[in-house]
């Protein structure tokens, strides 16, 4: 990733990709206290456009606030930085990664002279899963790792260190032959995937875990917005893993995963064992929205060349 042409926005300047470096004593590298976003730009009739940029930037600022990091830039500057990262790397579609991290001015947990840095990189990242997974769905395993407890780490923050838990769970799931992990909260209720929120559909109602230990997903919110438009009843509540086994349909949502059907959990087939009709409808509406083909939600797109 590091050895390539291009430009990365770092602390207000566009820096050549290979020169966008930090010191080995970077505080966040040692203790994980930092926050980031995963944002995407899609190709639309108006050129590349960032999906729900405002919501992602708002969440980045909320994450920083939760972690007590003082942002050295405004939201407008960060929005502009994300547009520039896509534009100046000549990307038509892109994954965008803003990150807020502490510098190398001091070491140790008590360091109090640390500078808050911000970077934004953008690159093309074709598909998070195999293209067939979007239709056929993926195999998931319930993780042996518990999702964060709300008073162990801050679950509303998309904090760097929180992702140790995600990576342990994902690596375990993959080495066990599954494609993704389902993490349960400390009481045993369904929380989320390693980097996705989850929905299940049963008896005419879509269900998703309430926002306690899972991240306030922007794709999750997009699905809730669609359900409001379409009159699909939704319940945000506690869900058990066996409710997922007996669901008619289940799917993950996330900026990287988009709307991803789940065909199996812990060796149990879910519904027909492939993408169900409601999942298909919401997935195709999602692709229309991100590609600028949903006029009623055109406000979700920020063309980068404006
Ligand atoms: N949960 C976790 C743990 C995540 O990392 C992500 C990805 N940001 C999500 C859920 C989905 O969030 P979003 O739809 O905003 O990408």
Automatic annotation (TrEMBL):
For this UniProt entry, the molecular function terms from Gene Ontology, in alphabetical order, are: transaminase activity
Q: Which residues form a coiled coil?
A: none
- What EC number is given for this enzyme? 2.6.1.42
**Record's CDD domains?**
BCAT_beta_family (cd01557)
User: Does the entry feature the keyword Transferase, yes or no?
Assistant: yes
Top EC class, one word: transferase
The annotated pathway is:
Amino-acid biosynthesis; L-leucine biosynthesis; L-leucine from 3-methyl-2-oxobutanoate: step 4/4; Amino-acid biosynthesis; L-valine biosynthesis; L-valine from pyruvate: step 4/4; Amino-acid biosynthesis; L-isoleucine biosynthesis; L-isoleucine from 2-oxobutanoate: step 4/4
- Name any cofactors this protein relies on: pyridoxal 5'-phosphate
Reaction(s) catalyzed by this protein?
A: L-leucine + 2-oxoglutarate = 4-methyl-2-oxopentanoate + L-glutamate; L-isoleucine + 2-oxoglutarate = (S)-3-methyl-2-oxopentanoate + L-glutamate; L-valine + 2-oxoglutarate = 3-methyl-2-oxobutanoate + L-glutamate
Keyword line:
Amino-acid biosynthesis, Aminotransferase, Branched-chain amino acid biosynthesis, Pyridoxal phosphate, Transferase
Describe the task this protein carries out: Acts on leucine, isoleucine and valine.
By sequence similarity, the record places it as follows: Belongs to the class-IV pyridoxal-phosphate-dependent aminotransferase family.
The protein depicted here goes by the name Branched-chain-amino-acid aminotransferase
Species source reads Marinobacter zhanjiangensis
């Amino acid at each position: 990733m590091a050895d390539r042409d291009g430009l990365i926005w770092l602390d207000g300047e566009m820096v050549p990709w290979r020169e966008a470096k930090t010191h080995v004593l970077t505080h966040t590298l040692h203790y994980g206290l930092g926050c980031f976003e995963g944002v995407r730009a899609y190709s639309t009739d108006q050129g590349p456009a960032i999906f729900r940029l405002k919501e992602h930037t708002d969440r980045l600022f909320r994450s920083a606030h939760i972690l007590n990091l003082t942002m050295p830039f405004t939201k407008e500057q960060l929005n502009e930085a994300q547009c520039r990262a896509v534009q100046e790397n000549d990307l038509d579609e892109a994954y965008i990664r803003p990150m807020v991290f502490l510098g190398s001015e001091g070491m140790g947990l008590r360091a109090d002279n640390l500078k808050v840095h911000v970077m934004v990189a953008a690159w093309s990242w074709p598909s998070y899963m195999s293209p067939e997974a979007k239709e056929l769905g993926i195999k998931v395993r319930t993780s042996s790792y518990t999702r964060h407890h709300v008073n162990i780490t801050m679950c509303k923050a998309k904090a760097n260190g929180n992702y140790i838990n995600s990576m342990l769970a994902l690596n375990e799931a993959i080495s066990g032959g599954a494609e993704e992990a389902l993490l349960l909260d400390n009481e045993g209720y369904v929380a989320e995937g390693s980097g996705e929120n989850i929905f299940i559909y049963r008896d005419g109602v879509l269900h998703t875990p309430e926002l306690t230990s899972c991240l306030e997903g922007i794709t999750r919110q997009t699905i809730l917005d669609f359900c409001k438009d379409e009159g699909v009843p939704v319940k945000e509540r506690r869900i058990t893993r066996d409710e997922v086994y007996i669901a008619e349909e289940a799917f993950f949502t996330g900026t990287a995963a988009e709307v991803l059907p789940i065909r199996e959990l812990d060796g149990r087939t879910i519904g027909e064992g492939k993408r169900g009709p409601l999942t298909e409808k919401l997935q195709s509406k999602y692709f229309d929205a991100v590609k600028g083909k949903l006029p009623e939600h055109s406000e979700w797109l920020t063309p980068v060349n404006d």
